[in-house]
Amino acid sequence: MRRLIPVLGALLAATPALADYQRMQAEGSVPEAMERLTAAVEEAGATVFATIDHGAGAASVDMDLPDSQLLIFGNPILGTPAMQADPLAGLHLPLKILVYADGDGQTWVAYEEVEETFDELDAVEDLEVLKRMEGALGNFSSVAAGE
């Protein structure tokens, strides 16, 4: 048992923390949740830059992957102050929300917490716009989930 404790500790330290992500169950299929998400983002005045269909990518190389789509979107009113504070914020922007199905067919909506996204950028982590980004991600995800 004494040998097992250091091994478990090392494994836990090497495992990425799931607390860095917000995730919620969604009603309906991945395409239905993505439709709700895209509509919410556009209605809020943000720009949809891309939709990445991971499932279609897997299918294109004859591999199986449950439905999984990533929406990439942003709003310069929120993103510009972060990049003014530190240009490296541009590596994390625009924002992203993933809608995916698990192995049981349950649809999920997930995003990385904004605080974690910009954690390494000291000049950015105290900006008021980060709270607004987090609120937008939460609101859009709730709509996508059908809440």
From TrEMBL:
Question: InterPro entries, from UniProt?
Answer: DUF302, TT1751-like_sf
Q: What keywords appear on the UniProt entry?
A: Signal
Which positions fall inside the DUF302 domain?
A: 52-111
Signal peptide stretch: 1-19
Q: Which PANTHER family match?
A: INNER MEMBRANE OR EXPORTED, SLR5037 PROTEIN
Q: What is the designated name of this protein?
A: Uncharacterized conserved protein, DUF302 family
- What organism is listed for this UniProt entry? Palleronia salina
Q: What is the lineage of its organism?
A: Bacteria, Pseudomonadati, Pseudomonadota, Alphaproteobacteria, Rhodobacterales
